[in-house]
Amino acid sequence: MTLERIAVGSTTEGANSAYLVDGRVLVDPGPPVDTAWTHLRDWLEASLEALTDLEYVVCTHWHADHVGLAPRIASAAEATCCLGHVDAPLLGAYRDERARRLERDAAALAAWGVPRPVIEELIDRDTPSPLPETTPVRRLHDGDVLAGLQVLETPGHTRGHIALLADEGVLVGDTVLPTYTPNIGGSDTRTAKTNPLKTYIETLETLEGVLERSTEGSEPRLYPGHGSRCERTRIHDIRTHHERRTERIRGLLEERDSATPWELATDCFGSLGGIHAKFGAGEVAAHLEYLEGAGAVSEVDGGKYTLSAA
Q1: Does 268 reside within a domain?
Q2: Distance CA 150, CA 164 (A)
Q3: Does residue 115 form part of some domain?
Q4: What CATH number did the domain enclosing 204 receive?
């Protein structure tokens, strides 16, 4: 099995990483901008005998910087567009699901204690991506095999995130990133009140188990959705980061006695606006839900949290 990486587009998390597997499967084609499209198309045309050699376009999750070019390249190559079954509707029925997402985001932000002017600004600035209103999408499930790639459900960053197990290692999307810790909580408000941090930690444990079983005698490899290859030790680093952040948020809550996720987010990260308001408040909410699940904090009236009695 051959695996080639191409850097396409760029975000605050670094260059998007698209992967071509065996000349048949394109993974995470990148954001829906013309410069990224031209770069990706030219690279594929130079790498393949014909663009129609491409059979599948697979996206690890629904975020626009990963699915943005999927409908366009799938159409041009006459390939099948694929996502995990939980995330698939957010591309497959983009127009309707986007409207639902905005309502869901606003409700989650309000529950986290974010001030109304900040919510209104965030929703107003959330402009539509240049995606079709609907796109035919094949829904993938855990354990499915697609052109030799095994599908692994890896929820956390989004509720329906998937990874793909290849001979060379695991294509992990945004589950593991080389220099940033993936946002948990704010990156997909469908995860609100589901203890997404616990889910994400379980995903990291699953990945470690997969690496142990599939890479015996070789160095484990992780191929992320941004940046270049990660080593397995990155999983430990991310878990340690979240352990430290959990303790910091617990300490900040102790100083305040009771607080909303938004109040603790401003304590933790400083002034927040735009998308960072959602990511910051959602991240803190995820840690509070994790602490609540462990019996360390309790939610009280007004969406505030307080330390549980010893």
Answers
A1: no
A2: 5
A3: no
A4: 3.60.15.10
Residue 152 lies in a domain: yes
Per the domain annotation, does 286 fall within a domain? Answer: no
Largest CA-CA distance found in the chain, in angstroms, rounded: 67
Amino acid letter for position 123: I
The phi, psi pair for 264, rounded to 5°, reads: -70, -30
What residue type is assigned to position 192 of the chain?
A: A
Kindly report the number of other CB atoms within 10 A of residue 305's CB atom. Answer: 27
What is the pLDDT tens value at each position of the chain, 310 positions in all? 899 999 997 655 568 999 999 999 999 999 999 999 999 999 999 999 999 999 999 999 999 999 999 999 999 999 999 999 999 999 999 999 999 999 999 999 999 999 999 999 999 999 999 999 999 999 999 999 999 999 999 999 999 999 999 988 999 999 999 998 999 999 999 999 999 999 999 999 999 999 888 755 566 689 999 998 898 999 999 999 999 999 999 999 999 989 999 999 999 999 999 999 999 999 999 999 999 999 999 999 889 999 997 6
CB–CB of 109/51 below 8 Å?
no
Backbone CA torsion sign across 64, 68, 71, 73: negative
Q: According to DSSP H, which parts of 188-232 are helical?
A: 196-214
Query: 80 is in which domain, residue-wise?
Result: 3-96+130-254
Domain count, the chain: 1
Question: In Å, what is the CA distance from 167 to each residue of 52, 98, 148, 179?
Answer: 24, 36, 9, 24
